[in-house]
Amino acid sequence: MTQYAIVAIGYNRPCSMERLLKSLAQADYDGDQVSLIISIDNSGDDSVQRCAEDFDWPFGPKIVKTYPQRMGLRRHVLTCGDLVEDYEAIAVFEDDIYVSPNFYQYMKQAVAYYEGDDRIAGISLYQHLWNVHANRPFVPLADSNDVYFVQFAQSWGQVWMKRQWMAFRKWYEEQGEEFQESADIPDYVASWPGTSWLKYHVKYCIERNKYFVYPYVSQCTNFTDAGENFAIPSTGLQVPFQTGIQREYRFVTLDDSDTVYDAFWENEKLAGILGLPADQLCTDLYGVKKNRKNQQYWLTLEIKDYKIVRSFGLLLKPQEQNILADMEGTQIFLYDTAREEKNPYRHHVGRLACSYDFRGDNLSVGMLKNLMVNKVNRQLRHK
Fold it and tell me: Using one digit for the tens of pLDDT, what is the confidence trace for 75-86?
């Protein structure tokens, strides 16, 4: 049995599966034997199965798994995750993903570094450039490492390690089918339909205080083909991915990283920068949290009638960089919600005169063109 496996998940899109398999065949496997498992849910059509059976995989064993009846997305993905029992780690791709030639190098090195850390729930191969909760761009704060951390599980290309996956599955079985919402779970995640498996993995990360490792340079991209998750195809989730081979990555532990985000994609390190206890600060720069846990201090762009402890400008990107640089201005406010006080900037015309562009310099033309398409499709996702 090989040490690592790749799991390609398909249903009824033979062209998508063929494209994914082609990209996998072009990757660098460093001379290793790597198992390829192609798992195909029952759609009543054998075109994906024929594509899988005809595909030549010269890097190790190839296994084509089919099922006599339709499993549905959640059950199918969870079943594929359980394949990690036989391997040290598996890389999992649904059929609308396209991988970097370097993804396996990144996977091997990341697994070697994080497999002993139970605070890490998984390793993302995809780098988000979009905050799905706020429907706004996301840019992580840059540091000297090749990775950062987010309390948000991944479904658009991810690595699951054996012990960490088994811990999630135990939690999942104990919790039952009903999804219990809480103030810590973003509304967008809670709104995903019952077919979603990802909402449970995100909830697990939040409840058990676990994180996914994310790359600064993506190791795959997402075609978002029309199918189970999107009504129409879109390039809105396309991201730049690594094309060259990198032999060595710089990893960092969760404790030593300055770039750690919660499930709302808010930087958890800002409390320390501001000299506040983490449990007393609501960091809400994307305006999604709304301080629904009633924390005493609230860092937000919104105008509120509370005592202003400090204010910052909104000129640097990513937006938390303004706090680190102590940027002068009145676009970001740190409030003390225990003290009501009329905000003097409520009717200040020049408050946002900096014309901060929330679209973000990082966006591709395709993403901008498909912004409205993504907005329509948000509720159609079945992850």
Answer: 999 999 999 999
The set of residues, in sequence order, having a beta carbon less than 8 Å from that of 110 and lying 6+ positions away, is: 123, 147, 159, 213, 249, 251
- Give the CA angle between residues 152, 155, 158 to the nearest 5°: 90
Which amino acid appears at position 117 of this protein? D
pLDDT over 90 percentage in the chain: 82
Q: How many residues does the chain have?
A: 383
DSSP of 297-354, one letter per residue?
A: EEEESS--SEEEEEEE---SSSTTHHHHTT--SSSEEEEEEEEE---TTTT-GGGGTT
Quick one: tokens of 105?
Answer: 């190098």
Contact 34, 7 (CB under 8 A): no
At 47, is the pLDDT very low, low, confident or very high (cuts 50, 70, 90)?
A: very high
- pLDDT for 247 equals 86
Do 303 and 348 form a contact (C-beta atoms < 8 A)? no
CA–CA separation, 247 and 313 (whole Å): 40
Rounded Cα distance, 256 and 250, in Å: 13
Report the side by side order of strands in the sheet with 306-312.
281-284, 297-300, 332-340, 306-312
Query: Which tokens sit at 70?
Result: 């339709």
* H-only helix segments in 143-186: 162-175
Per-residue model confidence (pLDDT) at position 81: 98
Query: Of 95-104, 252-261, 348-357, 366-375, which range is least confident?
Result: 366-375
Q: Which helix (H) or strand (E) holds 376?
A: helix 371-377
Q: Which residues 6+ apart lie within 8 Å of 254 measured at CB?
A: 117, 119, 120, 149, 211, 260
Distance between CA 274 and CA 380 in Å, rounded?
39
Question: Which one, of 351, 371, 373, lies nearest residue 359 by Cα?
Answer: 371
